[in-house]
Amino acid sequence: xxxxxxxxxxxxxxxxxxxxxxxxxxxxxxxxxxxxxxxxxxxxxxxxxxxxxxxxxxxxxxxxxxxxxxxxxxxxxxxxxxxxxxxxxxxxxxxxxxxxxxxxxxxxxxxxxxxxxxxxxxxxxxxxxxxxxxxxxxxxxxxxxxxxxxxxxxxxxxxxxxxxxxxxxxxxxxxxxxxxxxxxxxxxxxxxxxxxxxxxxxxxxxxxxxxxxxxxxxxxxxxxxxxxxxxxxxxxxxxxxxxxxxxxxxxxxxxxxxxxxxxxxxxxxxxxxxxxxxxxxxxxxxxxxxxxxxxxxxxxxxxxxxxxxxxxxxxxxxxxxxxxxxxxxxxxxxxxxxxxxxxxxxxxxxxxxxxxxxxxxxxxxxxxxxxxxxx
Length: 375
Hints:
Shape: globular
Order of helices and strands: EHEHHHHEHEHEEHEHEHHH
CATH topology: Arginase, Chain A
Strand content: 5-15%
């Protein structure tokens, strides 16, 4: 059973104009896959909203009521803005704030349920890893990965591995499980020395108390390409496997690590992104797959289409057909750097991978992690 959890309802659950997440994502992916002939209707599970019980596994009731109240009037009280960080430019009041987040979180729980039934599922709307129990943060209002982790705990799972490939550090996830030895958090991301969230995600943050040695950050320098990234991922996974034998893992697949994405300084091709996914599956078996960041809609749709091909066992087509090209061309999105030729994104699905060897800085980082976790 291979399923994509999604809905076209997200078309009407967008962020505010000019917000980086205003772009079509899940709906675009579904339309693109259909146009490419890469998905059948029976492979799509229609997203449902998370229940109150599921949300309360991680979030506080007062915070949820503030989100719900703000959604009803599409406004925010000053005290809510100050206390819960909603109604800001970063985390604006919009249909995505509550209703969109409910749908994305319910979809992640659905992906977990499919896994528990022996299947495999991908929820591209998931991966909103910055939201805290009672505070919005980093474009995220409801932390569906944390809800999913708590749902798995409730089902009796004792050893859960959370792997985050988003270009931005999973600050709220780290804080929530920093003293928990039942959840191992592995995050590859832009170094907080130059990227959001700036205050967390450093290599020395390895957990505290019972959780010491169960939190691994791999903060990478600017300009990371496929070869370097895959080296760092493989070596960090080897370290994790020596320490931790998970019963289940969740993989967050933010596409903002791609070279086309303007909110990160990484330079991965979608072929490198796909190889990262393959590497995790080859080393750990099947997991629970969530989306994440991603602010270039065309790059995102192509990358997640590749992930779906792998999950569903399909051969990757070499070219994008005319119907699918039209789907991509119809997106209302302006390139930030018009001097760069991006026409390849409308012709081919899989990019050419870059095998650049890791620079000394990346090798030294891995050696430091080995010293921190294995010696």
